[in-house]
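Title: Prediction job returns without error message
Component: structure pipeline
Severity: low
Priority: P3
Assignee: unassigned

Description:
Job completed but the reporter wants confirmation the result is attached to the right record. Sequence as submitted:
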Amino acid sequence: MAKKLVFRVTSIFCITLFVGHFLFTLLDVIPFNPVSAKHNNQVYEYMEPLFNQTWELFAPDPVADNRTIYMQIKEENGEKSDWYDITSPKIEQNHSNLFSPHNRLVRIPTSSVISLFQEDSTSSLIKDNLTNEENHLTLEENLENHLDLHQERAKHKMYRYAFSEAGRLYEETNIAEVQLRLEITEVVPFSERNNEEYESESQYIEFPWEAYTNVASPY
């Protein structure tokens, strides 16, 4: 009798978890609507960063560059470390074993960078309504405020991931601040795929130093 009860409770729990996950996923990927707008914060908190869905491989604007996050650590004595690549190792580990936890961990740095530049559904909806001259100024202010919040969330996620990496590499008591640098390198054009002398151009975006905060490591 006890085994049957445990089985029923476990089954109900798993089914509820399964339905809840796909409900959040559905609200995240369907076109923007009043229901997804009402629960936007809850959906974002659940989906980011492990379950985030992106469509950058598809037309009309497929991804055309590689984006790498670098981290520099400043110790309590003021000494600065070299720049650490905190993106590529996760991608390589994921490629070596697609069924390892790295398949999810790699989404943290990559999805946060995508969020910095990707326009979300709320921004698109506000832009669509900017043609209404009567509410033009208010909508522009709302769009600016929303984009600022969207980017702040992305940067916050990037720094939290960097803090976890810094705590793994250094003694936490010795870490004072962390700085991030984003490298954006164009992919080799198809027409130049056989040109060994072709050099891709890179751009760099440096973010300010942030005071280190202890973050639980995902390992």
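Comment from assignee: result matches the submitted record. The CA atoms of residues 188 and 197 lie 11 Å apart.
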